[in-house]
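Worked example

This section walks through a single chain of length 177. The input is the sequence exactly as stored; nothing has been trimmed or padded.
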Amino acid sequence: MKVLIVYGTTEGQTRKISQRIADHIDQKGHDAQLIDSTSLPKDLSIDAYDAVIVAASVHQHRHQAALVHFVKDNLEHLQKKPTAFVSVGLALVLEEDQQEAQEYVDQFLTETGWQPTHTELVAGALVYTQYDFFKRQIMKFIVRKGGGPTDASQDYEFTDWEALSRFVDLFIENVGR
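Given that input, the structure is written out below as tokens.
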């Protein structure tokens, strides 16, 4: 089985998550191709794949515009295949909870008109060491309100890698049916 994984990332955690998904698919004996949504090949054919996973991170209450365009441009092809939308963010970690994270997914799906076969909410990371002074202060304020860690001298990864592997296994199993 050939699986296309198209991702959008701002600080790198969604790239890391997408790479882990691709590696897991490869380890299961399938063929995964990983592509950054900002460098899509002009000759990319969705029809060449058995399934597609789109992974995007939430920043300022929205997913990456490049992925919105990718889904809209390929909607007809995506609707004919097993697909998954993986939404990565901090709402799952902070007191904002799963409902807010789901609202971001719903907004993306409404905007694009896409109905993926599966959706998965994945906790992201706080990468304080990559933020400039201004962004670090904003993130500390947001995280403090949500009850998260505010020590900006280190980064925090919240991704549950085992849950991600279970999701990929379930997706592969369902594609094979």
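What to look for: The helical segments are 13-27, 65-73, 75-78, 97-112, 133-146, 161-175.
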